[in-house]
DNA sequence: CGCCTATCCTTTTTT
DNA sequence: AGGATAGGCG
């Protein structure tokens, strides 16, 4: 047990061995956060202070949960090896589990399906159609966002407030949506949390049961919790009714809060300190990941933020290399440099997988991918379509859902005519009308449907019935295998020219089911709850499936900065460091948007172990238009002593118009292809021209519109942001 | 019913 | 530009 602590520094030991009271661990990037969390659990259990049964550990991603379990099973002595009874999972996973255990009390069917985002969207579309609501006026996507945002605040339609007609109407639709979900016995992601919260808050015996059981609650990435998640934790920890021993151990880093845009509230950390009367705040500031220069840069950058709890990373690893800064003439030029440099690193012995190319938005990956592909460098792009989101997989799962629960309208709609079986929009509308009138599920209404539609739909119903009968008592992978054949899915994709990959994915789904059963068998997470079918369906909804092509391959890693959180690499390139891109221009519209962007940059910088590159381009093709860009203010916020300009030998500190000088134009040609004249802007100005404004200072003309007296130009003023100026009024001078 | 074109919309994303 | 999706036409 003492060897658990042997390799920890004093702060880490202090955190791990805190008495069971509420505690806040401010864990900086690379300070061994996950390690502290897992060691804490292992320590509690192996010292006999807690039975595994009493531990609840919450993470944000399945990946993190899995990682924690893996590390735990390595740490715990054999007698705890199985760690049975330990609850480790995501907020959604844990809520799902409670809801299934107490589905009756939660007013849900035993095998309630979980709607993922796509399902939710189609459920909303169906609702709007049924109600005859104009989906132009109420875009389903926007409505979904509205509903989810309310649920994440813990607000039901009945409690929602709206002060204008439009909001009022949306609240009515929210209520209708709630009713539809309840009728169909389904729950979307946000519903899992809200329903579970309501279950615990309304059902006192149940609440007391869990409060008494979970004496130790541990939360990872606490800065990413939203309002509802925080309230859920409060309820479970029983802050208002302190049960003896119940303690909340929260680990987080306010400087790495990058999910405010989807409802995360950093303020929860302060609220936690206050409302839980936290006496133990421990800072983990020693960084084991990066060299000094990288940390100095990160520290200097984040100090520009006002709202911080305060923390400073340090290392005893030495300064290391300077941070390389590269200015490209164009995005292509930038990509060229990045790929050349990556190749050089690989040649010198850096494993490709230890090189990360980061960017602010996904659209930026294209140029990089192209260069990598041309250069023949293996690479892997993270993000993108997830396994369980693929249409062929969703189709197969929809059949599975119908076997489990025929009243699942979402699943019904998806496959009633897929593969095509003669049920067109006509027949379907007839069915929908019948179901609406009878206030029943589509499946139920199908029985009495007259005419040609009735025959076709009847055939479909018989197919599902047959499937259910034939798969009675058959193992899960075999059920799936059988349904792929019987439904005609395989035949359909066999006949499709792009169908081969889809067929492979269907086979992979069978393997996924097999793996699921195996894991469930010896896992710590899921002691048999309900039947395998619905458990697998929940798994498919909650776990997107990180199965991606080329996973095992040693390749350069491409991803957004968001996706890079929690990872580390020997060499990191932060690309597209330009005003308007990173920080993103849309962040100006958001409250504290710039500070969140800066935290994002902080996350990006702290991913690097040895070498860090910051690159930007003067010209970038965006939305099919050339944009003229100034270097990101985040570069200027770093101490110059840490930076080393590289590339194009004499890259100037302040960047001129690439079209203005002959030398640049020549390079432009070689990098970007055909030479073009700079596009005209009205009033004698040119796009890309450097200008000066009395109030905003130096800027670059980015685009223009209108003629004569109406002429306006868009100017990028760097720190001052992007402005539209009417040439007739603005006092612009050419520089 | 299915294929084709027109139109829309592009920050980040997990569950 | 580019891709995804929706609606219209054959």
From TrEMBL:
Renumbered residue ranges of the record's region Disordered:
660-683
The keyword Glycoprotein appears for this protein: no
Annotated ATP binding sites: 27-34
Q: Which domain of life is it from?
A: Bacteria
Stretches of Low complexity bias are at: 671-683
UniProt-listed Pfam families: PcrA_UvrD_tudor (PF21196), UvrD-helicase (PF00580), UvrD_C (PF13361)
Q: What is its EC number?
A: 5.6.2.4
Enzyme class (EC, first level): isomerase
Q: Which residues form the UvrD-like helicase ATP-binding domain?
A: 6-291
Entry-linked InterPro entries = DExx_box_DNA_helicase_dom_sf, DNA_helicase_UvrD-like_C, DNA_helicase_UvrD/REP, P-loop_NTPase, UvrD-like_ATP-bd
Q: What UniProt keywords apply to this chain's record, in alphabetical order?
A: ATP-binding, DNA-binding, Helicase, Hydrolase, Isomerase, Nucleotide-binding
* Reaction equations catalysed: Couples ATP hydrolysis with the unwinding of duplex DNA by translocating in the 3'-5' direction; ATP + H2O = ADP + phosphate + H(+)
Q: Which PROSITE patterns match?
A: UVRD_HELICASE_ATP_BIND, UVRD_HELICASE_CTER
Q: Which CDD domains match?
A: DEXQc_UvrD (cd17932), SF1_C_UvrD (cd18807)
Q: Where is the UvrD-like helicase C-terminal domain?
A: 292-566
Q: Where is the signal peptide?
A: none
PANTHER family, per the entry: ATP-DEPENDENT DNA HELICASE SRS2, UVRD / RECB / PCRA DNA HELICASE FAMILY MEMBER
Tell me the protein family, please: Belongs to the helicase family. UvrD subfamily.
Protein name in the entry: DNA 3'-5' helicase
| Protein's organism | Dentiradicibacter hellwigii
